[in-house]
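subagent[fold] <- orchestrator: predict structure for attached chain, return tokens only, no commentary.
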Amino acid sequence: MTRQFERRPLRLGRIFSGNPLYFVTLCTHDRRACLASHEVHAAFVLFAQRAADKVGIVVGRYVIMPDHVHLFVRGGPGFVWADGLEC
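subagent[fold] -> orchestrator:
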């Protein structure tokens, strides 16, 4: 089941006709400041490369902050945003 958005601007159908681009923010539990390290960055890059290679999900620009991550992500042609995910 795909997620439906209420009052979605009509022009978005022309802009994102196929694979939409998502802006995602991930936060650590209790906003613990544990992400600002070279090791976490290297693990994130490896994760993004594997996602692209194995399932066709591509991570674009991203920012890793001490307690959260912002990123742009796009799925392949069969990508479906899972119901029940908070955003």
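orchestrator: received. Logging for downstream: The longest strand covers residues 21-27. The chain has a mean pLDDT of 82.
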